Amino acid sequence: MPMKTKLPLLKYIITIVSLSFLLLFFSHQPRRSKTLLTRSDLKIRRGYTSYDAYIQRQLNKTLNPKLREIWMTRDWDRKIHVFSRFFHELKLQNLLSNSSKSLCIGARVGQEVEALRRVGVSDSIGIDLVPSPPLVLKGDFHHQPFDNETFDFEFSNVFDHALYPRKFVAEIERTLKPRGVCVLHVALSKRADKYSANDLYSVKPLLRLFEKSELVRVRKVDGFGLDTEVIFRKKNTIQHS
C-alpha cells in the first residue's frame, strides 16, 4: 500500500517540475519584433549582383527594339494625349505654369516632355539612361546631371525602377528649387513591370523619403498601369547669416 501511495505523488511532482522547466525555457526565448511580422511598405527586389548589373537590366528594356518602336509609333500620340491632360490639370491648380523650368525623370523617348511643351511649358527636358534627342538627355536618376536648385517642376513615373529610392528622392530635392513641385505616378495595387527594382505598397515610404518637402496631395489616377499620383512641394530653404 505505501508504494501505491507514493507513485501518484511522484508523478505529480514530475509533472510540476516539467511544467516549471518549460515555462522557464520559453520565457527566456527572444521575442519576435512586431516590426518583423509586418510587411514592409517598400521592398527592394533582390537579384542584382552590382550596380552595373542593375543598369544593364534597365538598358535591356530601354534598348529593346520592339518596345522602342511601340513607344515611337502606337504609343506616341496616345501617351502624349494622356500626359497633356495631367499637366493641363496641374496648370489649372497652379502647380505648374508656362514659365516652369521642368524635368521628366526616366522619360524613355520623351512623350511626357513633348506633352509639357504642347501645353505651353516650353522649357522642358527629360533624362534617361539612353538619350532621345532633342527631348531626352542621357542621365542616371540616381545621379542627376544638373546643378542644385535648377528646376521648378519635376515629373516621374519610374519610381519603381529606382534601386536606391532614397538617392532617387534626394536627387529630386537637390535639383528642385525651393517651393518647386514634384509629381510622382506610382503603382500601389499591383506589381506589373518585371524590370522594376522595388515594390511600393503605400505612400508612407514616400512621406519619409521626401524629407525636405511637404505633401500637397494624393489621388487615384489611371496612368498606364500606375494608379496613384503623389505631389510634393519642396520647402523653402533656411538662409543662415
From TrEMBL:
<feature type="domain" description="Methyltransferase type 11">
    <location>
        <begin position="103"/>
        <end position="184"/>
    </location>
</feature>
<dbReference type="InterPro" id="IPR013216">
    <property type="entry name" value="Methyltransf_11"/>
</dbReference>
<protein>
    <recommendedName>
        <fullName>Methyltransferase type 11 domain-containing protein</fullName>
    </recommendedName>
</protein>
<dbReference type="Pfam" id="PF08241">
    <property type="entry name" value="Methyltransf_11"/>
</dbReference>
<dbReference type="InterPro" id="IPR029063">
    <property type="entry name" value="SAM-dependent_MTases_sf"/>
</dbReference>
